[in-house]
Amino acid sequence: MKELRRSGEDYLEAILVISRRSGEVRSVDVAREMGVTKPSVSRAMGLLKEGGFIRINNDGYITLTQAGSIIAESIYERHVVLTDWLVDMGVDDDLAAEDACKLEHDISRESFSKLKAHIERCNRCKSRECF
Question: For the domain that residue 58 is a member of, what is the CATH number?
């Protein structure tokens, strides 16, 4: 299995989001979701398929493999947690989502785990001092 770059993680996350929303994913859906060209998606899908992260059936429908799903779920969780955290601190929704997208790829597992635990503690006690 090949190592993924940031863009590969973004494509896997987009596939996950689309599949949750509509159940079926095709390259055109990914292009629309990500705001990229169809040729870019086609190249990315080829690399992800070659890397063992996705399957593409004869009708062009894309599904995540177990390995792809694990990565997509992890990136998506980071995105949601970081976006919500930034919004809770008063950052504009769109800017928070944009910044979360940058942070989700670079934060270490340990730092994310500690940050997530801290946010959960703060949410339980509802203290604004935490944010």
Answer: 1.10.10.10
